[in-house]
């Protein structure tokens, strides 16, 4: 069994076999997070509510600790003994938040029979990518293999990861997040089109990370118009794989 439910932005409930992962929890109420600095607009975040969903999960998986992927509300609301799988560079930050079961994923670890492998991600282009700090994707391998690309643009590591792991589904963070200066720091519709072209036709490409944070400028409609064959769930929608 495998399914992905989009809650909002990059926050997912991911079911794989008998295990459920809460991915990148951003749990704040609308307007509780200030606008992303140096953005093209000053709308307060999140822009939309969380859907009314029971948050039941076995572990939390965090691609990186930017506030739109792990916010203060998540730090306050998550049980302190929940297993947290994260980048090793950020493990101590979670411990300082009071979490007692923090598992930094250097390369690959196993959780309840699911192999979790950290994969490369590039959060932008050029010097800006370096300034954004480390970001990761993950491949989860059980009875199905799922690739969460994380906050990355299209670059050589993305097709290399697809080729190495041959996933049954790929989740991409779209939205073309943008500062006033520089190129986008997450996938644009054109980037998502590159993923769709590289992945076999029978492998779903699921796009999230849209319409919830003020500097994500590409809308669902933009992506649907630009690229065929991409699944673009609404908030709260569950995609069975």
Automatic annotation (TrEMBL):
SUPFAM superfamilies (UniProt xref): Metallo-hydrolase/oxidoreductase (SSF56281)
Annotated Metallo-beta-lactamase domain residues: 7-209
Highest taxon listed in the record's lineage: Archaea
Keywords for this protein: Hydrolase
Keyword check for Hydrolase: yes
PANTHER family documented for this protein: L-ASCORBATE-6-PHOSPHATE LACTONASE ULAG-RELATED (PTHR43546:SF9), UPF0173 METAL-DEPENDENT HYDROLASE MJ1163-RELATED (PTHR43546)
Pfam families: Lactamase_B_2
Protein name from the UniProt record: L-ascorbate metabolism protein UlaG, beta-lactamase superfamily
GO MF term list: hydrolase activity
